[in-house]
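[audit] Reproducing an earlier prediction to check determinism. Same input, same settings, fresh worker. If the tokens differ from the archived copy the diff job will pick it up downstream; this log only records the rerun itself.
[audit] input (190 residues):
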Amino acid sequence: MGGLDGTGTKLLASWFQAVTPRTAGFNTLDYAAMETPTTVMTITLMLVGGGPSSTAGGIKVTTLIVLILATLAFFRRQERLNIFGRSLGVDEIMKVLALTSLSLFLVLIGLFLVSLTYRGDFLDLLFEVTSAFGTVGLSRGATGELDEFGRIFIIVIMFVGRLGPLTLGFFLAKRSMPRVRYPDGRVYLG
């Protein structure tokens, strides 16, 4: 943004560049020329996406907020997650964890598979895969350099990102009642 004239123009460009990675796919600046911190912030915005009732891709803002609040509740040793005068049950928190886990898993697997044949910059590839998952449409130019396998997998990531990992998970999952109930156990973490 150093080439832009005036503080107002820079603020407007900053605002636009913060909104567009969440769903629009428009750009007024060259993403390939952006510095690494700006690129990482844009990748984060594409991964999160927009609001739950919008057409934006990503995990959605509400999912991120519930994930953060659930983490804070864990560190405060709270047994229930209360937000805005409401209490979120374990099922809702499990959906958030499942959606976030599936989304990160999809991006990481996509990044791995596409990187098998791509020989360019890693950050460019991460940008492309995250943009595909978030169905954003932004690019740093790496998609054009992918081979057939890479392009097909980018298409698959876009399809799953548009459909939604949780929707796909619900479609594939089968509810089954356990025939045996085991005693509670403890998992030691960290």
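[audit] rerun output stored. Observation attached for the diff report: The chain has seven helices and two strands.
[audit] end
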